[in-house]
From TrEMBL:
Residues 1-38 form the signal peptide. InterPro entries: LpqE-like, Lxx211020-like, PCuAC_sf. This is Copper chaperone PCu(A)C. Residues 172-188 have a biased composition (Acidic residues). Pfam families: PCuAC. Keywords: Signal. Residues 167-188 are annotated as: Disordered. The lineage of its organism: Bacteria, Bacillati, Actinomycetota, Actinomycetes, Micrococcales.
């Protein structure tokens, strides 16, 4: 024998339950969305590191900084400038072929782009941070502290040792007198 069960549910109770479920879903979705956007919106300085950084020893004039910049974030980041107390003028340089087929170094338009989840090598004969008008001689064993600024205005500071280094002479764009600066930046 079956018994009928009668449940009296008030329409207001159903409405309240529905509203409560809807609000809970929105709160949960909002939390997930906030977590996802925070990971994507992390400042570039929080996702970039440098390894194997070093600076070329120089008595005066110019030098350069090298290393591997790594981006662990989900989006490309762009280094737009660098500063250091070791030099009054720094530029982010790239190596390109000019119209005559010569490899020259020049300031890179827009800065260095470090791909999402990837790295960018700063190396002799390639991309590098150029120090011009050195404040003092840079001797092997010294350390130089740099601050990188990214396109999102966040900054990252790192310190690199100064090393003796000799290599090939490089040409620089921008001076009508064929600016061969005796900047030894070829292979060790």
């Amino acid at each position: 024998m079956r018994k009928a069960i009668t449940v009296n549910i008030d329409i207001r109770t159903i409405s309240r339950f529905g509203v409560l479920l809807g609000a809970s879903a929105l709160v949960l979705a909002g939390c997930a969305s906030t977590e996802a956007s925070s990971a994507e919106a992390a400042p570039a300085a929080d996702v970039v590191t440098i390894s194997d950084g070093w600076v070329k020893a120089a008595d005066e004039g110019m030098s350069a900084a090298f290393g591997e910049l790594e981006n662990t974030g989900p989006e490309d980041v762009t280094v737009v400038s660098a500063t250091t107390e070791a030099s009054s003028m720094l530029e982010l340089h790239e190596t390109v072929e000019n119209e005559a087929g010569e490899m020259i170094m020049r300031e890179i338009e827009g800065g260095f782009v470090i791909p999402a989840g990837g790295s960018l090598d700063l190396e002799p004969g390639g991309d590098h941070i150029m120090l011009m008008d050195l404040a003092d001689p840079l001797q092997a064993g010294d350390e130089v502290t740099f601050t990188l600024t990214f396109s999102d205005d966040s900054t990252y500071e790192f310190t690199a040792p100064v090393k003796d280094y000799s290599g090939a002479n490089e040409n620089y764009e921008g001076d009508e007198s064929d600016m061969d600066m005796d900047m030894d930046m070829g292979e060790e």
